[in-house]
Amino acid sequence: VPWPDLRYIFGEIMYGGHITDHWDRRVCNTYLGSLVQPELLNNLTLAPGFKSPDASKMEYMQYQKFIEERFPPEQPQLFALHPNAEIGFLTNQGIAIFK
């Protein structure tokens, strides 16, 4: 993972481009420097009840296979939504199909 590149993209392009005050940009970059680190991936909660494995102990393909095999099925809780959020979506899709 190119950590310096990610920090630059977030700190200077995506979010930093909207920060007009020099000191606020400095604070943003300081937070990014502290938070966006390789340790971020260790025991990261990718979904409720699903923690990522230690990335340093797996190759890329092993890591990908681990996620593909063990990641829970898609559900509203994965996106921090109420379980009933899916009901409205599925209802609208059903209506669209029968139109």
From TrEMBL:
Q: Which residues form the Dynein heavy chain AAA lid domain?
A: 1-85
What are its GO cellular component terms?
axonemal dynein complex
Q: Tell me the domain of life.
A: Eukaryota
Gene Ontology molecular functions: dynein intermediate chain binding; dynein light intermediate chain binding
GO terms classed as biological process: microtubule-based movement
Q: Which residues form a coiled coil?
A: none
Q: Which InterPro entries match?
A: AAA_lid_11, AAA_lid_11_sf, DHC
Provide the protein name.
Dynein heavy chain AAA lid domain-containing protein
Q: Which organism is it from?
A: Alexandrium andersonii
